[in-house]
Amino acid sequence: MNIIKLSYKNILTKPLQTFLTVLILALSIGLLLGVKQLNKVFESQLQQSLNGVDMVVGAKGSPLQLVLSTVLHIDNPTGNISYNEAKKIAENKYIEDAIPISIGDNYKGYKIVGTSVGFVDLHKTGIETGALFNKNFEVVIGNAVSKNLNLNIGDTFYSGHGMIENVVESHDEYPLKVVGILKPTQNVIDRLILTNLESIWDLHGHDVESDNHDHNHDNEDITALLIKFKNKRGLLFLPRSINENTPFQAALPKYQLDKLFQFTAIGTKAITWIALSILFVSGISMFVSLYRMVKERAKELALIRTYGASRNKLILLVFSEGLLVGVFSFFLGVLLATFSLQAIISLIKDTYKQQIYLLEYQNDILELLLFIFGIIIIATLIAIRPIFKMDISKIISHES
Amino acid sequence: MLKTVDVTFSYSKESSFNFPDIKLSQSQSLLILGKSGIGKTTLLHLLAGILSPDNGSIFVKDTNITSIGSKKLDTFRGKHIGIVFQNTIAISSLTVYENLQARLYFSGISNQKEAIENILEQLDLVSVKNQKPNTLSTGQLQRLGIALGVIHKPDIILADEPTSSLDDENCELVIDLLKSQAKKSNANLIIITHDHRIKNSFSNTIVL
User: Fold this and answer.
1) What distance in Å separates residue B87's CA from the closest CA in chain A?
2) Which residue of A has its CA nearest to B87?
3) The domain containing residue B176 runs over which residues?
4) Which whole-number Å values give the CA distances from A268 to A25, A35, A261, A271, B167, in the listed order?
């Protein structure tokens, strides 16, 4: 027998009240942890996918849409721009790299991106097996594409027109051949299929140009240019200059994403406040539970004093009861958060074909654990007040 | 060994008590008789160190319990004093066995198993050792009360009206049990009661 065991036995005698306290405490802990983690994962995932892209130049329209479609590949593009015109912008001395991309086709839901080999460097990855695309209709596939579709070097497939899976129209004259598989990252490139620009143009121009592959591509369009600055000073005037002096639109991914986070932050904040209110209520519930224990079991506590227990031992008894409930709820809450996050992530994986990894959240857990400790200590401190005023003699001689 | 000198206690100006001196040598027993309201339970609580007197000294085994600190008194009480209440108080969430474990734990006594099994045997509680106190019969509860008061082999066993709610037969049984337990640990047995039926069981009597 010891304090913890006695607390445990005491808790077992009031299952309903304990259940209620544990339930709301675990719920609020799970919510707090889950929301925090989701928010962090969401932000870091998007920030990571920006990689070295400082600016996007594309067709006029919503700048956020331009960023989402060309950098994060989660929306439709704003339109097309002339490659020849765009190339002139790329000659600016502040620009280190300008990578053209052309999107609009997919294979089984995975987007096909016509681009240059610089795209791979921009995403800070490289070839895992095989080689980069060299000729028309050769493709390099992201790691997740290879795994999820079980595609390997040498396999061929036909692309479909449009951004989504199962479109009726498919480009079944030109098979695309896998020549390389990229190293895994946690970025959007994992779920892209890369080829050269000419392949995309040929896929779409075949009915005009018939069998001639050697036609020139002088008047072809691209979706956007992904631009990396040599010097961050380019940020100051280049976007404005492009927006005012060219038919194109320049968007800054970082700025657009920050704007997006401001919107999502409202939702996160609301859920966090709700979770904190629930936590507050569960703190009260814990206090009520402990206070009732002190009041209703006053006689037993007095008895324990006659057994030789000091007042501090009784306080410890109350505290350990709170601690048991708190720690149990905490683990339940962490489990709840972990399982929910896993479920959300696998849902995202199924829907967006994007592998997401949870960030480490030991620090969040530790922080929350300390917070819960604080709540237990406060609940105990208020609940033990009758112990200080306890008159053992009076309580014991009130024979019930 | 127990000795009290000039002990007085008052709840208020109207109800103050002057208690006669008590002097008991080792394993001597004492019956304190008196009507209700005369301060019997107060005296018992003073002897147990639950109340502290306004004046006077109480020596238990050469320790003046009125002059040691409250924390020391808690420890001292747990080791050297056992109280048998009129109506048994036990921890409701624990079984009979666990109650005895808890009693020894809070008194700081390890090596519990043998002591518990002995007392269960002696007080005929073996069959109900895994039951909670609220499922026990009156007699079983009374015996549990005695077990909780004596299991730690105290130097003084204080019993408050142990027989008042019992019939003649059980009254005698309880007194015998208390006496034999006191004898086993060489303890002073002090019974406080208004029950005149047990007057003849004790040679040493004080009337308040």
Assistant:
1) 7
2) A399
3) 2-207
4) 19, 7, 10, 5, 71
